[in-house]
Amino acid sequence: MRTLKIKELTLDELELLEQDLHENGEKSDYGFYMQLVIVYETMYKKLKSLARNSGPEHDYALQYTKKLLVSHLIKFGTYIKMNHFKDDGDAVESLIKAINLEKKLPVAYYRLGFLAYKHGKYGSAIRYFQQSLDKHLLGDPNYALNQQQEFHAHMYLANSALYVASQTYETMGKLPYSPSEQLPNLELSPLFETLSSNEKYLHNHAFYKITKNNTETCSKEACEALYENSEPNELVLYLNDRENILLFNGEEVIITPTQANMIRHFLLSSSKENPCTRMTMRDFYGRTGTDGEVKKNTFIKSIERLRVTLRSIDIPEIIDVTQYRGETAYYFNESVPFTVLFRVDDAIGDDYVSG
Fold first, then answer.
1. Burial class of residue 120 (count of CB atoms within 10 Å of its CB; 0-12, 13-18, 19+)
2. Beta carbons within 10 angstroms of residue 166's beta carbon
3. Which residues, 6 or more positions from 5, have their beta carbon under 8 angstroms from its beta carbon?
4. Cα angle value 69/75/79 (rounded, 5°)
5. Domain spanning 3-156: CATH 1.10.1060.10
6. pTM of the model
7. How far apart are CA 71 and CA 79, in angstroms?
8. In the structure, how many helices (H) and strands (E) does the chain have?
9. How far apart are CA 204 and CA 218, in angstroms?
């Protein structure tokens, strides 16, 4: 559906389109995420106008739609272009849109700081990391930083400031009207030693590596080595800088962001005693049904699509079905060992790390 057509739909038509998008699954060109963001943006604008002109009866729908829009901008903004790879420009634009809607988003500022740092924009990185820490101190649990992210934010903030300082000193030394002998006798080697030490730490703790009984941090190179040398019958889920990959016995498949998040959730947060229902996995979907939760049909269809993906590389049946509090529920049956790899700055992944 063209963007113009989406923006011309009524609220009822937009809700039907949203439901259809979730029930029919993500498209291979990732246009799914772009369409969902446009749907929520259009809903939000229409509801905002109604709330302004018709009174408070639209306030709940407005705030709920805003929550959905912010969530998708943060979690899936990287994928809104029609390609298979993440794009930093799209991520920045999406994160800024989210912040314009909701200011208390520590992890969004953190992600913006990381992207600025990655591209050598240290002045912007300082601003974003400081805002991330400031918002984190407000105590709002939504999109808060975990302990590792909070520590990394301080490290990145310090390094950004050191880079700015070193660049300033270098510029001062080149000024034609300020001879070097007029400058204070500055010893810069300790500064560069600190930079190097901090960079090494951040490099070696850039990713989480999580197995059944252990959570640790490691470098990207360590992730690549583990991925290339995985054990027989070991399931590896690797959410790297460009794509999400599932590996099993030398066979791999690139999976969509939603499926990657679902598999991670099954592996790290489900069990026979604590299975996943449409309520516990509601954050991976959109607007809720008439009972206040994800529609049963949407949830069941998404699990079946996930199973088809797993079978495509001969992964055994690792997701079992059960009944839990009157609901169809699913859980990881622990039939294979696993390793999950994802960046420390992952906007969703911090839910699976204590602290």
1. exposed
2. 15
3. none
4. 100
5. no
6. 0.83
7. 13
8. 12, 8
9. 5
Model confidence at 82: pLDDT above 50: no
Count other C-beta atoms under 10 Å from residue 85's C-beta: 12
List every span in the chain annotated with CATH 1.25.40.10.
Answer: 3-156
Rounded to an integer, the average pLDDT of 269-281 is 93
Kindly report the average pLDDT of the chain as a whole number.
86
Which pair of structure tokens corresponds to residue 25? 């699954």
Q: Where are the beta strands (DSSP E) in 8-158?
A: none
Where are the domain boundaries for CATH 1.10.10.10 in the chain?
207-352
| DSSP strand pairing (327-332 vs 215-218) | unpaired
Provide the 8-state DSSP code for 353.
S
Please write the tens of the pLDDT for every residue from 304-323: 999 999 999 999 999 999 99
Q: Residue 324 CA to chain centroid, in angstroms? A: 29
Q: Does domain 207-352 have CATH number 1.10.10.10?
A: yes
Nearest partner of 76 among 347, 351, 349, 266, judged by Cα: 347
Contact 208, 221 (CB under 8 A): no
Which three-class secondary structure state does DSSP give residue 74? helix
Token duo for residue 331 = 């859980």
Rg of the chain over all Cα atoms, to the nearest angstrom: 23
Which of 9-23, 75-89, 163-177, 340-354 has the highest mean predicted lDDT (pLDDT)?
9-23
3-state secondary structure string across 213-278: CCEEEECHHHHHHHHHCCCCCCEEEEECCCCEEEEECCEEEEECHHHHHHHHHHHHHCCCCCCECC
**pLDDT one-digit tens code per residue, 104-151:** 899 999 999 999 999 999 999 999 999 999 998 786 677 888 888 999
334 falls in which pLDDT band (50, 70, 90)? Answer: very high
Residue 27, pLDDT score = 58
* Per-residue pLDDT tens digits for 10-52: 998 998 888 888 777 665 555 778 888 899 999 999 999 998 8
Sign of CA dihedral 242, 248, 250, 253: negative
